[in-house]
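During the second half of the funding period, the structural biology subgroup turned its attention to how the target accommodates small molecules. The most pressing case was tryptophan, which had performed well in the primary screen but for which no bound structure existed. We therefore specified the complex as follows and requested a full 3D prediction, including the ligand pose.
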Amino acid sequence: MKRIFSGIQPSGEMHIGNYLGAIKNWVDLQNDCENIFCIVDLHAITVPQEPKILKRRIREIAKIYIACGIDPKKSTIFVQSDRPEHSELGWILNCFTYVGELSRMIQFKDKSEKGGADSSTVGLFDYPVLMAADILLYHTNLVPVGEDQKQHVEIARDIAKRMNNKFKGLFTIPEPLMKKETARIMGLDNPQKKMSKSAASEYNYIMLRDEPEIIEKKIKKAVTDEKGIDNLAVIHSSFSGKSTADIKKEFAGRNADFKKELAGVIIEGLAPIQSKLRELDKNPAYIEKVLKDGAEKVRPLAEKTISEVKKKIGLG
Ligand code: TRP
């Protein structure tokens, strides 16, 4: 059985782009693979975080995983910093990674653009190595990620191959799992760019917890140029299962009707998730238990990998 590892940073609230582009696909993989879904809090602190908010968001991601259909009985859900082996392996991998290869990472270039590389943290620069540790620690076969993370899976493969060459058979070489038809959901107010919680206007996104009236309002205001309509059709299709071509044909020249119908489809699609979230909100002890059990479940494999790596490279 193939092992899957993926993670989400608890650095913002979740919108439908996160759900349709990531978690929804993971839910579909649950029955065919052994799944590990992590809440990557150590990645989140590569940029400034408010401690209280971070703590709340870690729990929020756990709730969202479960509410969206990740079943803790089938999949392991845990918090990255609850397993110290991630940091430990990360450090070791650092010593087999070149500054030059990290300097080529597009995400670092993007994220450090504003303040410049000199005022970015070393953690932000090193982020792909910690991600490689996440993946390699569990001998992961498949890493379901979006296009923007493909380069990071590539570097994990490069590091693994490099160390395997030197130390023979240390790591499983992971493959990125990119679903072609995976929805790339664009901003409602600016369909040129990905939907993003950090967008200037709240009319850019629909959050998983948005109330029906808010959803209606946001869809009503959505841009309907060619790209905008394409994006709205993708959202419709992701929730309804209809093809985007059929949707566009059905509503050609009837934007107002289309928006009304779309808002309904989203509201209906989110209703079971929102009701499950409300239920989970009332049961924080359950969430704590899921996370604790998850971290214990992956412990043996994490410890085994670390001890093998240390032995092979001459430590411990
Ligand atoms: N970097 C990923 C993102 O922002 C999150 C992540 C961290 C991840 N570790 C991972 C994804 C390991 C897949 C596998 O989307």
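Two results from this model are relevant to the next phase. The mean pLDDT is 95. The two ends are 32 Å apart (CA to CA).
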